[in-house]
Amino acid sequence: MEKIAVLGAGSWGTALGFVLADNGHDVRIWGHRQEIIDGINEMHENKKYLPGVELPMTMRGYTSLEEAILGVETVILAVPTKAIREVLQSLEEVATNPLTIVHVSKGIEPDTLLRISEMIEQEMEPAKLQDVVILSGPSHAEEVSRRQPTTVTSSSKNMKAAEKVQDLFNNHQYFRVYTNPDVIGVEIGGALKNIIALAAGITDGLGYGDNAKAALMTRGLAEIARLGSVLGANPLTFSGLTGIGDLIVTCTSVHSRNWRAGNMLGKGHKLEEVLDNMGMVVEGVRTTKAAYQLAEKYDVKMPITQALYDVLFNDVSAKAAVDSLMSRTKTHEMEDLANILGERKN
Ligand SMILES: NC(=O)c1ccc[n+]([C@@H]2O[C@H](COP(=O)([O-])OP(=O)(O)OC[C@H]3O[C@@H](n4cnc5c(N)ncnc54)[C@H](O)[C@@H]3O)[C@@H](O)[C@H]2O)c1
Ligand SMILES: O=P(O)(O)OC[C@H](O)CO
Fold first, then answer.
1. Distance from the alpha carbon of residue 331 to the mean position of ligand 2, in angstroms
2. Are 226 and 302 in contact (CB under 8 A)?
3. In this structure, is the dihedral angle defined by the CA atoms of residues 165, 86, 57 and 46, taken in order, positive or negative?
4. Structural domains in the chain?
5. Alpha-helix runs per DSSP H in 170-302
6. Element (H, E) at 344
């Protein structure tokens, strides 16, 4: 059994700490908000992010990063993408041994257009970084922490490290972990599905039905696969847990913050009001900006992303964005992906 630090005491960090504690590990969860950490230590509950879940006694909260990572070899990085660099810089300062960093966040950094594993490699000195592993897939904290059956994927450039993380998290009762060596595909699928979930929430908010949602999910997956393939992902990854799997759960679950934010936008609320209301991270907003920039840079057609970008940042109404998608020039369903795959073969 291992001593493991979880950095980020939000919904996902707390739920993953819960799984690790269930698996017999000594879990140290670090957060920057004293009242959350006090609640975990004194009441065994994270009232703000995971209310109603009794946390195991073997899970201890820390506000000192130095103390949380003392004697630890594996660190789970579970903060929103926006906070990743800041937390890594603090980690770099206090780390005394090479760490395996398991990141579980779903985003791409706007402007640098880096995936999170690339940000980790950029911020951590090689002497303090053993391996980078990604844990991703269709998984809502609310269900995992109630021990409901969930499947995810562990991915790394070093498959031994991915398998080690598979063993740390795998729980025969409710948490099944697969492996996949396609780091790019796993990270791109996990990040970009949030864009489509925002769009699915918007069409639901506008009062459109299941046909519209099925269209968005299917054509959304096509544009995720187009961009992912250009970036070097294995297109098959997008038919797996971190592709279609995560797209399904995020577009259809009431737990999804991205779907809920989209739903409010579709009902006519302003973005700022929606984000204030949520009180938790809605990764899809920044990821839309990053994916829009990637689409421009690599000249990849991403009409749903582009329409959502206009709703979020150019004050285009949700209804006008749907109309613009429906009136696009006619096309062949598989044309673009077929071209990209053809180019990769040649
Ligand atoms: N919630 C889920 O079910 C779920 C599932 C899979 C993946 N994820 C991903 O996990 C990541 C984290 O999401 P979450 O659901 O835990 O978010 P959350 O909004 O529930 O919690 C975020 C946590 O990060 C903390 N935080 C923010 N900025 C910080 C900083 N600078 N330093 C330290 N802590 C900081 C907040 O205080 C909060 O505790 C996201 O990328 C999300 O997409 C979430
Ligand atoms: O609640 P969301 O929309 O951030 O989604 C959480 C997870 O990524 C679902 O797999």
1. 31
2. yes
3. negative
4. 3-179 (3.40.50.720), 188-345 (1.10.1040.10)
5. 183-206, 210-231, 246-252, 257-266, 271-278, 284-298
6. helix 335-345
The ligand 2 atom nearest the CA atom of 283: 4
Q: Per-residue confidence at 106, pLDDT binned at 50, 70, 90?
A: very high
Ligand 1 touching residue 104 (CB < 6 A): yes
Q: Residue 335: pLDDT band by 50, 70, 90 thresholds?
A: confident
**pLDDT of 319 over the 90 cut:** yes
- What is the per-residue pLDDT across 291-314, written as a single tens digit (0 to 9) for each? 999 999 999 999 999 999 999 999
Q: Which residues are catalytic?
A: 193
Residue 54 CA to ligand 1 centre (angstroms): 19
Q: Which atom of ligand 2 is least distant from the CA of 193?
A: 8
Report the percent of the chain where pLDDT is more than 70. Answer: 97
ipTM above 0.90, yes or no: yes
pLDDT tens digits, residue range 15-51?
A: 999 999 999 999 999 999 999 999 999 999 999 999 9
Structure tokens at 311: 């709703």
3-state SS class at 301: coil
Percent helix / strand / coil, the chain, rounded to 5: 55, 15, 30
The pLDDT score that the predictor gives to residue 304 is 98
Distance 325 CA to ligand 1 centre (A): 32
The torsion defined by the Cα of 71, 77, 82 and 85, in degrees rounded to 10, comes to 40
**Best probe residue, ligand 2, of 194, 247, 281 (max atoms within 8 Å of C-beta):** 194
The annotation status of 139 as a binding-site residue, yes or no, is: yes
